[in-house]
Design brief:
The chain is mostly helical. Helices cover 77% and strands 0% of the residues. The chain has a single domain, classed as Up-down Bundle (Na+/H+ antiporter like fold), CATH 1.20.1530. The protein starts with a helix and ends in a 19-residue tail after the last helix. The relative contact order is 0.18. The chain crosses the membrane at residues 7-25, 31-50, 70-93, 99-120, 127-153, 159-181, 202-223, 229-250, 262-284.
């Protein structure tokens, strides 16, 4: 039992528990309004903290590795959307429109920061490049994710005056405020990094509870069957394998060094749950529901697969590069 307890990610357990709570005790009526407002405030605080943590000097220094960042951005905002559109050929018969909308939204979400850095460090890659690549992806995502979502998904996205206002007030304005006030808040945030990290996670759980509560009220779970969930997981596994294989092959073809290739693979193959869920709440509004389910599933899948890859790469001889082929884990030298 102790081994099982250590193997279960507490945050994953909390996410699953939040979904179960929303299914059993969804917020309705006045409680739904209160929870929704609380989630909006939490999202604003979350992006304020993101802005306060970002060092403009470090971000500018990282521009020297622009080729590496360009590969990561191309994977995040070009390769993934192209693969999502290709999966559309299977959507009518295998996925509901809502699940396919969620899959497309997953494909336009920016890369992660924290887990990309952690896996790059574990695999002995270029950690500084991973920090900058994740940061640039998040910044670009604030602009590109809504634009790509409106283009690929269409009318489901609230890309109207009201939608833009929600996006600006909930995400962009708090982020810019964090940047402007970083001189005064940066030290406090650095000293309380662990406590504020918990606040990040509580904010995400609030978004999940709010979205799934609304979904329960609309009866969306009646549209989800076990076979369709299995197909969704299979499609996401293929998506992740193609992203891992393509980024690795592109990095080798473009002549990047070993440490840079590791950063490219981990930064270019993942999607951010922390950024994606608040964006989904702002872009889809009451219809977020199933739109966030594919991202939640992909998030856990990418963590498990990339942790396995990073651990194996960490044991390789220093003189050799980490081999990776599409659909397979890296082999030890």
């Amino acid at each position: 039992m102790r081994r099982i307890g250590r193997a279960v990610d507490p945050y994953l357990a909390a996410l699953v528990g939040t979904v179960v709570l929303a299914a059993l005790l969804p917020a309705t009526g006045g409680a739904a309004v209160a929870v929704g407002h609380t989630a909006d405030i939490a999202i604003g605080l979350l992006f304020f903290l993101y802005g306060s943590r970002l060092s403009a000097r470090e971000a500018l220094d990282g521009l020297r590795q622009w080729r590496l960042h360009l590969v990561v951005v191309a994977s995040t905002f070009v390769l993934f959307p192209a693969l999502g559109l290709a999966a559309g050929a299977l959507a009518p018969s295998l996925l509901t429109p809502q699940l396919y909308t969620g899959l497309l939204f997953l494909c336009v979400v920016p890369s992660t920061v924290q887990s990309s850095i952690a896996f790059t460090s574990t695999a002995r890659g270029n950690v500084a490049a991973a920090i900058c690549a994740g940061t640039y992806s998040s910044l670009l995502g604030m602009l590109l994710t809504p634009l790509l979502a409106a283009w690929l998904i269409g009318s489901t996205v609230r890309f109207s005056a009201d939608g833009l206002l929600a996006l600006g007030t909930q995400l962009i304005a708090p982020f810019l405020a964090g940047q402007l006030l970083r001189r005064w808040t940066g030290g406090f945030i650095g000293r309380h990094k662990r406590s504020l990290g918990r606040l990040d996670r509580v904010s995400i759980l609030l978004v999940v509870y709010t979205a799934f509560s609304k979904g329960m009220a609309e009866g969306i779970w009646h549209q989800v069957t076990a076979p369709r969930l299995a197909v969704l997981l299979l499609l996401e596994a293929v998506l992740l394998a193609l992203a891992l294989g393509t980024t690795s092959a592109a990095a080798r073809r473009l002549g990047f060094g070993e440490e840079d290739r590791i950063a490219i693979v981990f930064c270019g193959s993942k999607k951010s749950l922390a950024t994606g869920l608040p964006m989904a709440a702002a872009l889809f509004g009451p219809r977020a529901g199933l739109a966030i389910l594919p991202l939640m599933l992909f998030h856990q899948m990418q963590l498990a697969v990339c942790a396995f890859i990073a651990t194996r790469w960490s044991r390789r001889p220093s003189a050799q590069q980490p081999p990776l082929t599409v659909g397979t884990a890296p082999t030890e030298a």
